[in-house]
TonB-dependent receptor
Amino acid sequence: MLKKTIFLFVFCLIGFSIYAQDNPAKDTIKINAQTLKEALKQLNSIADYSFYYDANSLDSIRLTKTYTSTTIQELLEAVLQNTNLNYYVFEGNKIILTENNIIYDKLPEGFFKKDSVVKPIEPVSRPIFYSRNNKQTRLRSRIETVRLGKEQKNNSRTSFRVYGRVTNNNTGEPIPDMTIIAQNGTLKALTSLDGNFEMELNPGENVLNFRALGIKQATKRLIIFNDGELNFGFDESLEQLDEVVVQGNIYRNVEETAGAPEEIDSEESKTVPLVLGERDVLKVATALPGISTAGEGSTGFNVRGGRADQNLMLFDGATIYNPQHFFGIFSAINPFSIGKLSVYKGNIPAAYGGRLSSVFDINTKIGDTTAFKGEASLGPVTGNLVLQSPVKKGKSSILFGARGAYANWILRSLNEKSLNKSRASFYDGVLNYNDRVNENNTVKVTTYYSDDNFSISSDSTYIYRNKLASLQWQHKFNDKNLANVQLSYTGYGFNIDYERGSNDDFKLGFDIEEYRAKFDFNYLKSTKTSFNYGIESGLYSVVPGYIEPLNNNSIVKSNELKREKGLETAAYLSVEQDISKEFSINMGVRYSSYAGLGSSTQYTYDPNAPRSESTRQDTINYQNNEFIDFQGNPEFRIGARYLLNPSLSIKAGFNTATQYIHILTNNTTISPIDTWKLTDTNIKAQKGQQFSLGVFKNIESNTYEVSLEGFYKTARNVIDFKTGAQLLLNENIETEILQGDGKSYGVEFLIRKNLGKLNGWLGYTYSRSFLKLDSEFEEERVNNGEFFASNFDKPHDVSLVANYKFTKRYSLSANFVYQTGRPVTVPVGNFNFNDAQYAAYSDRNSLRIPDFYRLDLGFNIEGNHKLNKVGHSFWTISVYNALGRNNPYSVFYVTESGRIKAYKSSIFSIPVPSITYNFKF
C-alpha cells in the first residue's frame, strides 16, 4: 500500500491547507477549504483517495485546528474526533464516512463456537411473507428519529449520559417541569426552571415521551451510540381541556433523602379560610405537623419544640427578622407576590446555618416576560395589588406588589370608650426585577419595605419596620457546574412614641442591620453523584436600645447603648450519592465561625457569685473592629433514604447547628418590641443537635401521601431570663439572662389527599419541649434545676385542612385546629406583708391554660371560565372561629384592693365573618 504524508492547515475564518507528498522534500499538494466537505472534494481530486459520504451531514462541520505530518488515517481520526462521524477504509484508497455507527467487515473472534454446526434450511411447501404494514410499524414510522453520539470500538458501557435543554418554539423560553418518560412508563427526567435535563439511557433504541402543560405532546425515538447533548424545541398546545391535572415528580416525598423541605405554593393558600379572609402562606405552614405558634395573635413560630428565634426566615435570600404584621395576625409579605415557601424542619442542608430549628425560605414570583398581568384583592381590612410586566419580551420582567390595611374603622366602631382613639394600620411593598441575560446568566434583584403603626392606648404608639434588598446572580459554567451569588442587606427596627402631653414624653427604639454575601456552587458529577459547596459571611450591626425626648418640652435625656457588631462566616460542603437504586445518602459538613467586634465594653464578674452589678469585677474596652471573642464550630448534616419499593421509603437524619444571635423577650411569644443580642464574652452561642427517623408512603400514584416521622432534639445555652427581668435599655443585660439546656421529642403524622373533589390534609403531632436552668446559685436556678415544660410545650396538636369542590366554580373549605393548652405559672397561695396581700406562685410552667380549638369555614366562588375575558374573579366568604370559642391567649393575676383577681385574655372570642374579592387580569 502506497503511504502518503499529508499536511493539513485549518483556519476557522480564512480556510485551511492540506499538504500531501510522496517525498517530504518534493511534490507538495496544497488544498484550501473552510468546511470538511470542501476539503474532501479537493483531496479526492488531487490525491489517490476516493470518499463516499452523505453531503448533508458535512455542511456544518468546520475545522479549526492545524494538522501536520500525518497519514490519512491519523488525519481523519483527528478531524472527526469532535463529530459524530466514523470512517471505514477498503480496497486501500476508498473511504466511507458514516454518521454515528461503525462499519464492521468481520465477525469478532469466538462468534461461532468450535463445535457449532451450520444446518441447511429445509424447504417449505409455501412461501413465507413478513408483513410490516401493522399499526405499531406505522406509528414508529411517524416518530422522529434522532441519533446521538459516536460509536467507539470496544466500548462496554451499559448506559450513556444524555443532556440538553428544551424550549418553546413560539417564544424561545425554556420549558420547566417537562416530564421525559420512557415507553415503559419510567420517569427518566424532569426539566429544571431553565429547561435543562439530564438522564441515563441504554445504548441503542430508546422511545421517549415529552409532556408539559401548555405544550403539544411529543414522542421521539433516540438511537444512542455514546454520551451527547440534545436540544429540543416544542410547539404550544392550544387545545381546550375539561380538566388538567399536573403532577410533577409525584414520588418526590418518597424518593428524596431526609431533609427535603415542606413546600407550599401561594395558590394553595387561597382556599384556606383565615382571619379576615387574608391569604397567608405562613399561616398555612402552621397547619403542618411540627410547626406551631404560642397562640392566636402571636408572632413567631415554634418548630419541633424550638424557640421562635431559632428559625431562619429568608426572603429572596435576605434575612427578615419580623415577617408578620400586627402581632402575627397578618403576614408582612404580600401573598400575591410569593411564589413558593420551602420549610426545612428536619435535616437542614449544609448550605443553611445560623439557626437551630428550621429554615423558612420564601421566594417571590418571577414576573411574566410575555405580557402585562395583575392580581388584586379587596377585603374588610386589607387591600392587595401585584403587577407584572415584561421589560424586554421573552427575556426580562418586573414585578411590583403593594398592600395596605385600613383597620381603624373597626376599632372606632367598637362599643368600648378606651379604644375610641386607637388605631392600627400597616403597609408593605415589594419590587423585583428578573433578567435572563443569556443562556448562562440570570439576575434577580428584590427590594422590600414594610411599616406597622398601631396604638391601643391613647398615649403610646408602636412603630416597627422591615427593609431589605437582595441581588441574586445565577451563572451556568457548563452542564455540570452552576454558581449562585447572593448579596443582601436587611434592616429591622422599632420605636415606641410615648406622648401624653407632659414633660416626660419620649421615644424608645431599637435597630439591627445585617449585610450578607453568599457564594454557592453545584457540581453534578453524574446522575448518581452531586456536590453542593460554598462560603458565606454576614456582618451584624445592632443598636441595643436608645431613648430620646419626643419634643422640645420633654426633660427626658437622650441615651443610646453602645452599638454591637459581629462577623459570622461559614464554609460548607455536601454530597448526595445514590449508592444503589434503593439507597441514597446526603452527607454535609459546615464550619461556622463568629467574631464579636469592637468598639465595645465587656464586663467580668465574680465566678463565685451570681451575676449582678454588685459582683462586677472588671471592665474591658475594645477598639473599633477589634476582636472581642472568636470561636469556630463544626456542624454535621447526614440524611439517608432507603426505598422498600417505588412508593415506600424509610428516611433517617442527623444534624448539628450553632446559633450566634438571640432574641431577648420575657413574653410568651415574640412581640414587635423584642430586641436581639449578639454572642459575646458573657452570652454563649446556642448549640443543638437533632435525630429523625420516618416512614413515607405514596398511595394510588400520589393520590394520597402518608408519613410518620419521629424526632429527638437537644440544645445547650438556650436563652431564658430571671423573673421580672428588665430587658430594655439595660447596659448589663447579661445579669438578667439565664442559659440552660433544652430538649424536645415527638412524633408527627400526616395524611394528604392531592387529587379528587375532596383534597387537603390531616396532621397530628405529639411533642414535648423542656428547659433546664440549673446553677450553683439559687438566684439563677429555676424549679430546683430540673427540666420543666417550656412556654410552647403543647403535647397534642391536630390540624385539618380540607377543600371540597362541588363544581369547577364552587367549593367549600374548612380549617380545624386543636392544641393542648400551653403552660403557665399561677398563684397557689397568698401571704400578707405590710398589711397587703401578695400571691405565692407555683413552680414555673407547672399548670396549663384550657385547651385551644377553632373551626374556620369558607365558601369559594370562582368566576366563569370563559376564554375571552378581561380577567378572572374569585370570591371568598369565610367565618373565622365559626364555633365562637373563647380561646384563652393568657391568664394573668393582679392584686386589687388587697385581693388577688384572675383574668383571662383572648384575641378572637366570637365568630369573625369576612368577604374578600380577588381579581386577576
Q: What stands out?
A: The first helix runs from residue 36 to 46.
